[in-house]
Design goal:
By secondary structure, the chain is mainly beta. The protein has one domain (2-371): Beta-galactosidase, Chain A, domain 5. The protein is built from 3 helices and 27 strands. The protein has helices spanning 70-77, 101-105, 305-311, and strands at residues 2-4, 21-28, 31-37, 41-46, 52-57, 90-93, 120-125, 128-135, 140-147, 154-163, 169-171, 173-180, 189-193, 195-200, 216-218, 221-223, 226-228, 238-246, 252-259, 264-271, 277-284, 291-297, 321-323, 328-339, 349-353, 356-361, 366-371. The chain starts with a strand and ends in a 6-residue tail after the last strand.
């Protein structure tokens, strides 16, 4: 549910034909957000924490939002959400997952500080905006720019973390991109990615997870219990995590998800070296408030830094990233929303060429071409 709020002059940018703009502040499921749009898509970005709350195509009559919206799902079902407000795609930095008791006592929150703090708009133009936020516990500065160009159903995101401390340390950075209902539908949502090596999350204490602990396998075929992990679960009551290494032989990494009934695809593409890992969080509670996290980042699991360092190396690769003293770490990705042609079954490869993002189904000789004039560094 979106409601228009009274515009704030610092957040209202010039309205230009075909231009990307933060045209107003809006309220989305009781969360304040900025509305960005062009002639193709609309994006809502939370002012508190910078989450991408909603991403929709203007030519979609249903305006289906692929993003996880637990507040909206709970409202429509007459339930309470244990996740509180809407989440969508939120940023976990510098931290991904739980914290130690000592960190908690020092005020270091789960999933890092960035998603809990207000983001200041420090620059804007007809093609986007730049946000900045200080992270006081870890003593880092986050700068994040988003850009949506005319004629392109693509959001380009460029982020940077700068350390104010005079020593090297381990950092954790996860892009917690999460699908939710109605886009996430049992047996109807198909996920593809540029990875082969995967592992079920190792657990010291088992909860209600269905997968074995710490089992290596080749994506997408989990041997026990036997299932194709590309396809959204049809059984409720399941919750599981897997971690996968993005193919190091490919300069670009990708993950896509499409709803086979709605013929709608949301996808991400990025330089493989920026985010070498992806964690899948698959949560199918009995109340139908399903979520599937496509959490690409610099580590394979949502764990404490101690646990991640102990886990490394995984599949012969370092499972974390260093943040050098008084230095910056930068990462980029593009997020797109595309129509899927009849007959398209499998995103086998994603590339950027000739001003387009190309998604190929080689087996069925199908291709989706998404206009994209941006580039990675």
């Amino acid at each position: 549910m979106i409601r228009m709020a009274r515009p704030h002059f610092f957040l209202v940018f010039a309205l230009m034909a075909g231009a990307c703009m933060a045209q107003s502040k809006v309220t989305f499921e009781n969360t304040e957000a900025l509305l960005f749009s062009n002639d193709q898509v609309e994006l809502l970005v939370a002012t508190q924490g910078g989450a991408f709350l909603s991403f929709t195509r203007k030519d979609d009559e249903k305006r289906i939002n692929p993003m996880w919206d637990p507040a909206g799902m709970a409202r429509r079902a007459g339930l309470n959400s244990r996740f509180g407000t809407s989440k969508g795609h939120f940023l976990c930095v510098d931290g991904f997952g739980p914290v130690t008791k000592a960190e908690q006592a020092a005020g270091y929150p789960g999933h890092g500080e960035a998603h809990r703090l207000p983001w200041a708009v420090v620059d804007s133009s007809k093609t986007g905006a730049t946000f900045k936020v200080q992270l006081p516990v870890v003593q880092e500065t986050l700068t994040r720019s988003i850009s949506i160009k005319p004629g392109e159903p693509v959001v380009l995101v460029d982020s940077e973390i700068e350390s104010q401390l005079g020593f090297d340390r381990v950092m954790l950075w996860g892009e917690h991109a999460t699908l939710g209902t109605p886009f996430l539908a049992p047996g109807k949502t198909i996920v593809d990615q540029s990875t082969v090596e995967c592992q079920t999350k190792p657990y010291d204490m088992r909860g209600n997870e269905s997968f074995p602990s710490g089992a290596n396998f080749k994506w997408p075929n989990l041997p026990s219990p036997e299932m194709d992990l590309r396809v959204s679960f049809t059984k409720t009551g399941m919750v599981d995590h897997i971690g996968c290494l993005m193919d190091p032989a490919q300069p670009l990494a990708f993950v896509t998800a499409y709803n086979s009934d709605e013929r709608l695809m949301v996808g991400y593409v990025w330089p493989q070296q920026d985010y070498p890992w992806i964690q899948h969080w698959m949560n199918y509670p009995a109340n139908g408030m399903f979520a599937w996290g496509l959490e690409f980042g610099m580590q394979p699991y949502d764990m404490t830094k101690q646990e991640i360092v102990a886990l490394s190396p995984m599949f012969g690769q370092q499972a974390f990233r260093w943040l050098p003293a008084k230095s910056k770490v930068r990462a980029q990705f593009a997020m797109f929303l595309a129509k899927v042609p009849v007959g398209f079954q499998h995103a086998e490869a994603v590339s950027i060429s000739g001003g387009r993002i190309l998604i190929e189904d080689k087996a069925n000789k199908q291709q989706i071409a998404v206009p994209f004039s941006g580039s990675f560094r």
